[in-house]
Structures are given as C-alpha cells and as structure tokens.
Amino acid sequence: GGNLNQSQEKSRKRKRKTIMNKMRAPKRLKNYYLMSYYATSASTLMFFLALQLSKRSSDMIWYAVLGLTDQYLHNRIDQRTYYMEMDRFRNEVNLLKAAGEDEDSPDLPQS
Do 49 and 80 reside in the same domain of the chain? Predict the structure, then answer.
C-alpha cells in the first residue's frame, strides 16, 4: 500500500507543478517582452551618418521617413516619438530647400 500512495502523491505533485507552470506562463511571457525595445531604424541611422559626412539629400530623408513610419505603423515606437522625429526630418527638408541643395524636395506633411 505504501508504494501506491507515494506514487499517487508524486503524480499529484507533478500535475500541480504542471498546472502552476501553465498559470505562470502568460506572466513569464509578458515579463520577457516587457524588456524588449526597438532602436532607431537603420534608415534613420544612415541618414544621420550621411548628414555627418555632409551627404545630406532628399532621398536619404525620405528613406529615414519610411523607416520611421514603418516603426510607427508596427507599434515599435509611440506617437510622441514619431511626431518628434518627423519634425526633425521636416526641418532637414526645410534646410535643404533653404540651401538650394534640392529644389525638388517635396514638403513633409504637417503633424
């Protein structure tokens, strides 16, 4: 009789542990993703690199805007960050136009 009770007890403990693990799984998953973050898009980094090398162009600004917009549309950045960065790019377009470096640069939409 003792072995049967020990076996049943081990089985109950195993089941209890399995149930507890299943209950904790969503919390563990949430905690895992809580520490996730997204960095600046590669196109934005390339734009600022080009800027430092005095290679600013409307094409580079547009690539950066596309990368930023992709991050925003896929919820990798919040709305505040999106608008702040768009203002920076809008200023860059205005600087290009003011310098006469790129007369064909279209305006970025206002936020």
Answer: yes
